Amino acid sequence: MGGPLVLYLKLCGMAALVATSPYWLHQIWSFILPGLHAHERKWSRVFAAFAGPLFMVGVLVGYLTLPKGLEILIGFTQSDLTNLVEFGDYFSFLVRTLLVFGISFEIPVFLILLNLTGLLPGRVIGQYRPWFIIGIFVFSAIATPSTDPFTMLFLALPMCALVGISEVIARVLDKRKAARSPYSGLSPDEPSPI
Question: Would you say the pTM of this structure is higher than 0.85?
């Protein structure tokens, strides 16, 4: 009986969350900013410049693939039956799908962030690339709500490309870091002059 009211509350809550996101994201950022060093502030601006558009591209890809997934899911209904989908269930399905696609496109940001902290060198990403790809396909198979391979591929293939791009960026950052090191060019087998 309370379904229509809950639906209005969900729609209003989601609209309020999206409409006020610049304000509350700014408040969170204003809380974090004073604790950062100058070079950390520079990198955080770069990450913010890429994270937002990547999330939006992920949401757009999810929105474009959603009709194909729905067509396949509703196609399982037998010809003599009618499939009635409640709008509240459809709305939850839509939001979950778009969030999964949007968040999954943030993977390069996290990989490069881990690289900048020194936890994940570019060579390690390259060394474990097959496992990354297997993990991406498993994640895509679980995260996409439909059971068709097309929706899974629409999520997995861009994620694989983004991991490849982040590997290249991580290797470039590692080379720059190594060139600035005072120990660059020294052999580990060379004895110290001391």
Answer: no
